[in-house]
Automatic annotation (TrEMBL):
Record keywords, A-Z: Cell outer membrane, Membrane, Signal, Transmembrane, Transmembrane beta strand, Transport
Name of this protein: SusC/RagA family protein
Compartments (UniProt record): Cell outer membrane
PROSITE patterns: TONB_DEPENDENT_REC_3
Topology in the lipid bilayer: Multi-pass membrane protein
Family: Belongs to the TonB-dependent receptor family.
Molecular function via GO: siderophore uptake transmembrane transporter activity
Gene Ontology cellular-component annotations: cell outer membrane
Domain spans labelled TonB-dependent receptor plug: 111-215
Source organism: Flavobacterium cheongpyeongense
InterPro entries referenced in this protein's UniProt entry, alphabetically: Beta-barrel_TonB_sf, CarboxyPept-like_regulatory, Plug_dom, Plug_dom_sf, TonB-dep_OMP_SusC/RagA, TonB-dep_OMP_SusC/RagA_CS, TonB-dep_rcpt-like
Keyword DNA repair: no
Pfam families: CarbopepD_reg_2, Plug
Keyword Glycosyltransferase found: no
Length: 1011
C-alpha cells in the first residue's frame, strides 16, 4: 500500500512542477525606448536561445519562475534578467566600457586597456558616415599620425598613405593585412569592413620585414551567432563637379596683357584693336563636366545559428570623371562570402573569399601636355571649334609645339583597363588543451588584368603629340601570391594576479607572376573599333613586344610573450626572423625584435577613488622593423639589358648586363621608439591619447647610385646598382581627444580632434654628392627637389628672391643676374646672393620649401536628436609647400589672374614681376613658384533621418534611414592650384604640382535599409 501512496505523491508533485513552467513573451528596448531588433536572448546554462524580431519582441517556451535569461547586443552591456512573469520588458544599457573592447593586433588580439603599442582605430560607423569610394579615404583625419594624399582626383586614381611621415626614398605605403593575409586595401568594398586597426609603432614588429611603414589590419564583417538572417541594402546616387576652377585671364584681359608684354620687349603689339573680345572661351568650362553621375549599391545578407555564422555581400560602384565624359571613368563590382563554423567543441573554421572586378578609363594628366595643362595655357581668344565645326588647331607661334586643343585631345584618347581578382583566406583554430589553441591560415591573391591603348593617327598642327602612324598596345598581367600561417597561442593564469600569453608561429609567403605587352602599327580604318593586335597586318618587324616574370619567396618565424600583473603592469616582447629571396646568401636572413610595456596607474591603491581621471595608463615601445621593397635579385648580375652587336656585317639585337649587381644589398631597418599616455576623464566621457615618437630608418635601399662608368650603366635596360646608402629620421607628437555625451534619451553628441606634429630630416646619403635629385620644372631646367643630408626629404632646391627691382639704381647696386639667363632690369625678380660672393649663379641655390606639413589635424562632429543625425568630418594640413609647375613659359600662353597685379612701374608691385616676351631670369626655378599649400578641408557633411520603426515594421523593415551628404565640400587655402593636398606619390618629388586633376565635390542622396 505504501509504494502506491508514494507513487501517487510523486506523480502529483511532478504534475505540480510541470504546471509551474510557462512561455515568456518579452520586448527589448534601447536607451531611447525604441525597439531593438537582433538582440541575442539566451537561457542561462541552457542551449535554448533566440533573437528579437524587427519590433524588439521575443518568445521563450517552457521556462520556470526564477530562470535567468542573458541578453547581449553590440554597443550595449550584457544583461541578466530573472523571469518572474510571462511578460517582461528589458531596457538595454549603453556600453561605456570601451576599455574592454577587443582590438586586433596581429596574430591575436588584446583588450583596449591592455594595449601597450600606438594603435589607431576606425569602426564601421565612421566608414558609413564618410562614404569613401576607396577605403584609404576613411583614414584621413580620423587617425592621428596618418596622412592620405591623392595622386589625382580622376576616378579610380591611387591614394598614398603615410604613417608618421615619409621614411624612405622608395616604397612608403603600409602593409595591409585583411583577416590575417596580405591584401590590397584599395580594392576592398568599404561597406564590407567592420574595423580598421593601424599599428604605428614597434608593435608591428610581429610582421618583420613588411612592417617598417606601419601595418593596417582589416577585419571584415561577419554575421552574428544565434540570429535570424538580416538583409541590408545601402545605396546612394549623386553628382560631381570640380571642387575648384583656377581664375585665368579672359579674352580682353589677355590681349591687353599680351600687348603690354610685346611692348615691354620692344616688339610690335599683336592686337592693335582690343575691342570686341569680351570674355572669350573659358577652357576650363569646356573640359569640366557638370552634374557628373556617381552611383553605388551594396547588398548583404548575414546571420547565424548557434554554431555557424555567415555574411554574403555584393557591391556595384560606377563613377564618371569630371573631365572627359565617357573617356574617363571607374566601375567596380565586388562579391564576398564569409563563413565561420564550430565544427566541434575544439575545432573552429573560418573563411572569407572576395571577388573584385573593375574597369578604368584614363586621360593624360599631371604633366606637360595633359588635358588640364592645355586648358590652363590656351588663350581665351581661341574658340574650341573652327567655322566648319572641327576642333580648332592651336597655332605654334607663341604657343610652342606641345600645347594642343584639350577637347581634341579628349576625343582622340582611347584606352581601357580591366582587372579581375579573387582573394581570401581559409583558417582553423583547434583547441588542443585548456589554454592552448593552434591556428592555421591560408591566404591567397590571384589577379589578371588586360589593357589596351589606341593611338589614333592624327595631327594637332605639327605638334609633338601628332601621331603619324596609328598603333595599338595591348598588355596582359598575371599576379599571384599565397601565404600559410601556422601558430600556437597559450594563455595561462597563474594564481590570482599573473596572466601570461605566448604565441609562436611560422609564415610562408610566395608571390609570382608575369606580364606580356605588344604594340602593332597601322590599325585598320584608324579606328578604336578595329584596334586589336589580331587585326594588324603589317610585317613582323613593325611589331614590338616585351615581357617580364618574377618569383619572390619569404620564410618567417615569429614569437610573442605577453604578461600582466593584476592587469596594471603590462609587458610584451616580440621577435621575428625573416628570410627573403630578394637578398643574397649573406644577407637573406634578418631578425626584428621589439618590446612594449605599460602601467595602468589608475589601478594603483595610491590613485584613490577615480573622480576626474577614471583611467590612466602610461606605455612605451621600442623595436626594429624591416622594409624590402626593391626589385628582385639585385644581388645578382642579369642579362636584362639591351645590346646591339655587329654580326656578319649586320646589326643584331642581343642581351647585355642589366642593372649592376650588389651582393651586399640588405634590408632597410627601422628603429621605432614611442612613449604614450591613455586617459579617460569625467565618467569616461572624455578620452585622451598622446604619443611622442622617433622613427629612424637606416640602410635605405637607394637605386641608381653611380659607382662606376665602366659597366656601361647608360645602355638601355642597364643601370647603377641598388645600395644601402641613406638614413632618415621622423620624430613628432600625436594628440587625440574624444568627447561623448548623452544629454537625454533623445539627444547625444560626440566630438573628436586629433593633431600630429612632425619633423623629418635626412641624416645620411652615401654617394659622392650626399644628395639625390628628382622631379622636373618647366622645360630643360635642373631637378627642383632633393633628398639631402640635413634637410627634409624632398625639399625644394632653387633660388631665393627678395622682391622686385623698382628702379635702375637697385639693379646697379645688385650682383649681375646675367648668369641666370638674362641681365636684370626694373620690374624683374631680385635673386639673393646666398653665398655672398658677389656673383649670382647655381651656387646660390638653397632650401626654399618642402612638401612635408608641420602639422596635420582632424576635427569630427556627430550629433543625434531623436531620429535625426548629423555628421561633419574635416581635415587640415599646415606648413606644407607645393611647386607651381602648371604654367608654360611661352610668350602667348594664358595666365592666372594674379598676374594682373604685376609690376608696371616703380612702387606698383614688389611680388609679381613685369610681363615681357623678351629674355629674363624670371622663369628660373625660385621661391616665386613655391607656395604655402596649407589648407583646411570639410571632407564630409551628412544629415540623416531614420523613420520610426513602428511606422515601417508592418512591411518587415527594421531600419529605414534617408540621408543627404556632400564629400569634399570646401577647401580653405591660399594655394593657387587645383588641390593643395595632392601629390605625385614620389617620396622625393611629391611636392610638384603639374596641374593636378582636382578631387571632385560630390553631392549624395542615400538610403540605408535593413530587413
Amino acid at each position: 500500500m505504501k509504494p502506491k501512496l508514494l507513487l501517487t505523491a510523486l506523480l502529483l508533485f511532478t504534475s505540480f512542477a510541470f504546471s509551474q513552467t510557462f512561455d515568456v513573451n518579452g520586448t527589448v528596448l534601447d536607451g531611447s525606448s525604441m525597439s531593438l531588433p537582433g538582440v541575442n536572448v539566451k537561457v542561462k546554462n541552457s542551449s535554448q536561445s533566440t533573437t528579437t524580431d524587427f519590433d524588439g519582441s521575443f518568445k521563450l517556451s517552457g521556462l520556470s519562475k526564477g530562470t535567468v535569461i542573458v541578453l547581449s547586443y553590440i554597443g550595449f552591456q550584457t544583461q541578466e534578467v530573472s523571469v518572474s512573469d510571462n511578460k517582461i520588458t528589458v531596457k538595454m544599457i549603453d556600453d561605456a566600457k570601451s576599455l574592454d573592447e577587443v582590438v586586433v593586433i596581429g596574430y591575436g588580439s588584446q583588450k583596449k586597456r591592455e594595449l601597450t603599442g600606438a594603435v589607431g582605430l576606425v569602426d564601421s560607423k565612421t566608414i558609413e558616415a564618410l562614404k569613401p569610394v576607396k577605403v584609404e579615404q576613411a583614414l584621413q583625419g580620423t587617425v592621428s599620425g596618418v596622412n592620405v594624399t591623392s595622386q589625382s582626383g580622376a576616378p579610380g586614381a591611387g591614394l598614398d598613405i603615410r604613417i608618421r611621415g615619409i621614411a624612405t626614398n622608395g616604397e612608403n605605403k603600409p602593409t595591409a593585412i585583411i583577416d590575417g593575409y596580405v591584401g590590397d586595401l584599395s580594392l576592398l568594398n568599404p561597406n564590407d569592413i567592420e574595423t580598421i586597426t593601424v599599428l604605428k609603432d614597434a608593435q608591428a614588429a610581429i610582421y618583420g620585414t613588411i612592417g617598417a611603414n606601419g601595418v593596417i589590419l582589416i577585419t571584415t564583417k561577419m554575421g552574428k551567432r544565434n540570429s535570424k538572417a538580416k538583409l541590408t541594402y545601402n545605396t546612394y546616387a549623386g553628382f560631381q563637379e570640380t571642387s575648384r576652377k583656377l581664375p585665368t585671364l579672359n579674352a580682353t584681359e589677355y590681349v591687353l596683357l599680351l600687348n603690354e608684354s610685346y611692348a615691354n620687349a620692344g616688339q610690335g603689339i599683336k592686337y592693335p584693336n582690343v575691342t570686341g573680345f569680351g570674355k572669350g572661351t573659358d577652357w576650363q568650362d569646356e573640359i569640366f563636366g557638370n552634374g557628373v553621375p556617381i552611383i553605388n549599391h551594396d547588398l548583404s545578407i548575414s546571420g547565424g545559428s548557434e554554431k555557424i555564422n555567415y555574411s554574403v555581400s555584393g557591391s556595384h560602384l560606377d563613377q564618371e570623371g569630371i573631365v572627359g565624359g565617357d573617356k574617363s571613368g571607374f566601375l567596380r563590382n565586388t562579391a564576398r562570402v564569409a563563413v565561420g563554423a564550430d565544427v566541434t567543441d575544439k575545432l573552429k573554421f573560418k573563411s572569407n573569399v572576395i571577388y573584385t572586378y573593375f574597369t578604368r578609363k584614363t586621360l593624360n594628366e599631371n604633366g606637360l601636355g595633359s588635358v588640364l595643362f592645355n586648358a590652363l595655357n590656351i588663350p581665351a581668344t581661341i574658340n574650341p571649334y573652327d567655322a566648319d565645326g572641327n576642333f580648332t588647331v592651336i597655332p605654334r607661334e607663341g604657343l610652342g609645339n606641345e600645347i594642343i586643343n584639350p577637347l581634341a585631345q579628349i576625343a582622340n584618347t582611347y584606352n581601357t583597363y580591366n582587372y579581375k581578382k579573387i582573394n581570401g583566406n581559409f583558417g582553423v583554430d583547434y583547441k588542443i588543451f585548456k589554454g592552448f589553441v593552434l591556428s592555421g591560415n591560408i591566404g591567397f591573391n590571384t589577379s589578371n588584368s588586360e589593357s589596351k591603348n589606341f593611338a589614333k593617327q592624327v595631327s594637332y598642327g605639327d605638334k609633338v603629340f601628332d601621331v603619324k602612324q596609328s598603333s595599338v598596345t595591348q598588355g596582359a598581367v598575371n599576379d599571384n601570391d599565397y601565404s600559410f600561417d601556422l601558430y600556437g597561442t597559450y594563455t595561462k593564469k597563474i594564481g590570482e594576479n599573473h596572466n601570461m600569453s605566448g604565441t609562436v608561429g611560422t609564415t610562408v609567403y610566395k608571390t609570382w607572376g608575369n606580364g606580356l605587352f605588344a604594340t602593332g602599327y597601322d590599325v585598320p580604318y584608324n579606328s578604336w573599333e578595329f584596334a586589336d593586335l589580331s587585326l594588324i597586318t603589317t610585317i613582323s618587324k613593325v611589331l614590338t613586344n616585351s615581357s617580364y616574370n618574377y618569383d619572390q619567396r619569404r620564410l618567417s618565424y615569429f614569437g610573442r610573450l605577453q604578461y600582466d600583473y593584476k592587469g596594471k603592469y603590462l609587458l610584451s616582447a616580440m621577435i621575428r626572423r625573416d628570410a627573403s629571396t630578394k637578398f643574397g646568401p649573406d644577407n637573406k636572413i634578418a631578425y626584428f625584435p621589439s618590446f612594449t610595456g605599460g602601467w595602468v596607474v589608475s589601478d594603483e591603491n595610491f590613485f584613490g577613488e577615480p573622480k576626474i581621471i577614471n583611467f590612466l595608463k602610461f606605455r612605451a615601445s621600442y623595436g626594429t622593423l624591416g622594409n624590402d621593397q626593391i626589385g628582385d635579385y639585385r644581388y645578382l648580375s642579369q642579362l636584362s639589358g639591351e645590346a646591339t652587336y655587329v654580326f656578319d656585317n649586320e646589326l643584331v639585337s642581343g642581351r647585355a648586363e642589366g642593372v649592376l649587381a650588389n651582393p651586399n644589398v640588405k634590408w632597410e631597418e627601422a628603429k621605432k621608439f614611442d612613449v604614450g599616455v591613455d586617459m579617460k576623464l569625467l565618467d569616461n566621457k572624455i578620452s585622451v591619447v598622446a604619443d611622442y615618437f622617433i622613427d629612424t630608418r637606416k640602410d635605405l635601399l637607394i637605386p641608381g647610385i653611380a659607382v662606376t662608368g665602366i659597366g656601361g650603366i647608360g645602355a638601355p635596360g642597364a643601370g647603377a646598382p641598388t645600395i644601402n646608402a641613406g638614413t632618415v629620421r621622423n620624430s613628432g607628437l600625436e594628440f587625440a581627444v574624444d568627447y561623448k555625451e548623452k544629454f537625454t534619451d533623445a539627444f547625444s553628441m560626440s566630438v573628436g580632434y586629433n593633431v600630429t606634429f612632425l619633423k623629418n630630416e635626412v641624416l645620411e646619403v652615401k654617394n659622392e654628392t650626399h644628395y639625390i635629385e628628382r622631379g622636373s620644372f618647366s622645360v630643360g631646367q635642373q631637378a627642383p627637389t632633393r633628398m639631402e643630408e640635413g634637410k627634409p626629404i624632398g625639399y625644394f632646391y632653387g633660388y631665393k628672391t627678395d622682391g622686385i627691382f623698382q628702379n635702375q639704381a637697385e639693379v646697379d647696386a645688385h650682383p649681375s643676374q646675367l648668369a641666370l639667363g638674362a641681365k636684370a632690369v626694373p620690374g624683374d625678380l631680385r635673386f639673393v646672393d646666398i653665398n655672398g660672393d658677389g656673383v649670382l649663379d647655381s651656387k646660390d641655390r638653397t632650401n626654399i620649401g618642402d612638401q612635408i606639413p608641420n602639422a596635420t589635424m582632424g576635427f569630427n562632429f556627430q550629433m543625434n536628436y531623436k531620429n535625426l543625425d548629423l555628421g561633419v568630418y574635416t581635415y587640415a594640413s599646415l606648413g606644407n609647400d607645393l611647386i607651381r609647375n602648371y604654367e608654360r613659359n611661352l610668350s602667348d600662353v594664358n595666365h592666372l589672374d594674379y598676374i594682373l597685379d604685376r609690376w608696371t612701374g616703380e612702387g606698383t608691385s614688389n611680388s609679381t614681376p613685369r610681363v615681357t616676351t623678351g629674355a629674363t631670369a624670371n622663369s628660373i626655378f625660385s621661391d616665386y613658384y613655391v607656395e604655402d599649400a596649407s589648407y583646411w578641408r570639410i571632407q564630409n557633411v551628412q544629415i540623416g533621418y531614420t523613420l520610426d520603426p513602428k511606422v515601417i515594421q508592418k512591411a518587415g523593415i527594421t531600419k529605414l534611414r534617408l540621408y543627404v551628404g556632400a564629400n569634399n565640400l570646401y577647401t580653405f587655402t591660399k594655394y593657387k592650384g587645383f588641390d593643395p593636398g595632392a601629390s605625385t606619390g614620389d617620396p622625393i618629388a611629391g611636392g610638384i604640382d603639374y596641374g593636378f586633376y582636382p578631387i571632385p565635390r560630390t553631392y549624395l542622396l542615400g538610403l540605408n535599409l535593413n530587413f
